[in-house]
Specification:
This protein has about 375 residues and is of the alpha+beta class. About 50% of the residues lie in helices and about 15% in strands. The chain has helices at about 10-25, 25-30, 40-45, 65-100, 100-115, 230-265, 280-305, 315-340, 350-360, 365-380; strands spanning about 120, 140, 145-155, 165-170, 180-185, 190-195, 210-220, 270, 275. The strands form three sheets. The protein has a four-stranded antiparallel sheet, with helices on one face. Helix 1 (about 10-25) crosses helix 4 (about 65-100), helix 6 packs antiparallel against helix 9 and helix 8 packs antiparallel against helix 10 (about 365-380).
């Protein structure tokens, strides 16, 4: 996969070969033992995935959001955890690319694109999740530097990442609250270390961690955009991309569940015939296939809007809502089609069933997506 490759089919074919050769044979062992896939991460860096949407002038592939969404779907169809390793990283990179100063772009983006420096987004805290305006991590000016204190929770790549875009409060008194939020790039080191890896039901292999900031000194040039109070805006812009990513994961998981169900329904026989000939199974397969394709089209619509520079919080919210619920429904139905074998760790469907629920929570809960959709519906259709 090269930076000057603009043909979607070539890019996706290269990715497919990588997934079949270097990922599929190892997924079951890595996932069941919750092992961070070091070799696979190295190969993803060689493919350029850590620079997928970073502009070519900064060393990235400069892919469209639509192509990126297709990449995420394919990766998630094989092993969803891998998509999280480069997605959180790319939201951080996107914040620098869209809102950073030119000096910040020149300094950070080439390292992000090559995978030399990987990381993610540090937003959520022990006392707040969806309500990001309620964060308590603070950055206080001390001399020429800022000093950060606080704790972040459920941070993807928290153990193995090197650098994070950290949301902090630089003004605790200002109203509305979001005007007191800023976004800093913070490298691990003195005053900033992960405290522990968090155990999860699914989404194994990728590390989710608690991050602790204890008198962590950060130079002012690490303030994204160079101006305090714009962090909430920067993050909200990045979450459009994040929600398209999570929606793409939902399509991938739903498609994987459908693939497994179709395959098993042709192999398993009951009452003297393959189970796909039973009407009850046919109805389930038809619903899974229709649901998956509808989710894919919603994702592509949101990605196309993003590529055009249009406001797409409603489109991304719709895609995220529908596709992640599709993943939940399809993974459950695939398990039911497999019967007792679906409950066995020897088959992939139990992993899909454990992975899917995260998608309805991450990048804003699906309840929040409904609120966003409803508000945008009213705003776009004034009386």
């Amino acid at each position: 996969m090269t930076a000057d490759s603009n043909d979607d089919d070539l890019i996706l074919d290269t990715l497919d070969r990588f997934l079949v050769r270097d990922v599929e044979p190892h997924v079951m062992e890595l996932e069941h033992n919750d092992i961070w896939p070091e070799e696979i991460v190295g190969k993803m860096a060689e493919l350029g995935l850590f620079g997928a949407i970073i502009k070519e002038e900064y060393g990235g592939l400069g892919l469209s959001c639509l192509t990126y969404a297709k990449i995420v779907e394919r990766v998630s169809r094989t092993w969803m955890s891998l998509s999280g390793i480069f997605n959180s990283h790319l939201i951080m990179a996107s914040a620098v690319q869209r809102f950073g100063t030119e000096e910040q772009r020149q300094k950070w983006l080439p390292k992000f694109a090559s995978g030399e420096m990987r990381g993610g987004l540090a937003l959520t805290e022990p006392s707040c999740g969806t309500d990001l305006q309620a964060i308590r991590t603070r950055a206080v000016k001390d001399g020429n530097d800022y000093v950060i204190n606080g704790t972040k929770m459920w941070i993807s790549n928290g153990i193995h990442g090197h650098c994070f875009a950290v949301m902090v409060k630089t003004d605790m008194e200002v109203e509305p609250r979001h005007k007191g939020i800023s976004l800093f790039l913070v490298e691990k080191g003195e005053g900033f270390e992960p405290s522990r890896k968090l155990e999860k039901l699914g989404y194994k292999g990728i590390d989710s961690a608690e991050l602790v900031f204890d008198d962590c000194r950060v130079p002012p040039e690490n303030l994204i955009g160079g101006e305090e109070g714009l962090g909430f805006k920067h993050v909200m812009g990045g979450l459009e991309l994040g929600r398209i990513n999570v929606a793409s994961r939902g399509v991938g998981v739903s498609q994987a569940a459908l693939d497994e169900a179709v395959k098993y329904s042709q192999q398993r026989e009951t009452f003297g015939k393959p189970i796909h000939k039973h009407q009850a199974i046919q109805l389930m397969l038809a619903d899974m296939a229709t649901r998956t394709e509808a989710a894919r089209l919603l994702v592509h619509r949101a990605a196309e809007a993003f590529d055009k520079g249009e406001r797409c919080d409603m489109e991304a919210g719709m895609a995220k809502l529908f596709a992640t619920e599709a993943a939940i429904s399809s993974s459950l139905e695939a398990m039911r089609i497999h019967g007792g074998y679906g409950y066995s760790k020897e088959f992939p469907v139990e992993r899909l069933y454990r992975d899917a629920p995260l998608l309805t929570i991450g990048e804003g809960t699906n309840e929040l997506q409904r609120i966003i959709i409803a508000k945008q519906l009213i705003d776009r259709n004034p009386i």
